[in-house]
Amino acid sequence: LTMSVRPGGCREALWGVFDGHRSHEVAGHAARLVSDFVWASPHWPASPGDALRGALRQCHESAREEKLRGGCTAVVLAAAGSTLWCCSAGDSGAVAGLDCGDVRRLSVDHRADSPEEVDRIRAAGASLEWGSVGGMLPMTRGIGNFDLESSGFACLPEVRQVPQDE
What we know:
Layout: E1 2-5, E2 12-21, H1 25-40, H2 48-65, E3 71-80, E4 83-89, E5 95-97, E6 103-105, H3 115-123, E7 143-144, E8 158-163
Antiparallel strand pairs: 1-2, 2-3, 3-4, 3-7, 4-8, 5-6
Helix pairs in contact: 1-2
């Protein structure tokens, strides 16, 4: 778990989990850089969802440029004003415990057994092998895994939000 509080920011913080697979390189890269990409985004703080999505994509492309091996899932939470934002890619999850006592799932699982992900991969002209991407990974989205992009792996983060006062 990484945490970053925006310098000079009021009630603005980020938490991130980057679960590496096939190597630690991309996960470490993401843990070091995602918060910088969010804070520097022209979308922050007016559009936190766009800032988070852009930061994960920027991290993905910078890992490609550095020729890093492996990949990682990503779950990044941002507190901005009175809203909690969750940006996820992969099968790592986040839930929120609400003041009313309920629990709300914030992240989306991007897995090879999800009908939506199977449809997305087929529409891209790829197919799953043995119920996994490239015959190796159960998750279909994340950062890195450049050698599996032709098999349908993609950096396509999804964003959800919940008011912090629920």
